[in-house]
Amino acid sequence: MGVTGYAFIDKAFVPHWHQLPLTPLRKPRQLEVIDGRPVSSGLIIHFVRAKFQIQQHLGEALFFVTKLGHYPVVLGIP
What we know:
Elements lengths: L6 E4 L12 E7 L14 E11 L2 E10 L6 E3 L3
Parallel strand pairs: 1-4
Antiparallel strand pairs: 1-5, 2-3, 3-4
């Protein structure tokens, strides 16, 4: 199946990244781990829009808000 191309942000990190406003999803989404089981953190119900910089690259993305655990942000590759 491969990488989804979606970006995710840890819900505990959101308040630390420029006070990003949470936007409710019209339809909650279920996130699954690699073997198809739903993640224990439950449905994703919000997203944030954020600008970011990686070295000289500037970008903007929609990040689904969930509990990530070890990383504050995960960027997918489409």
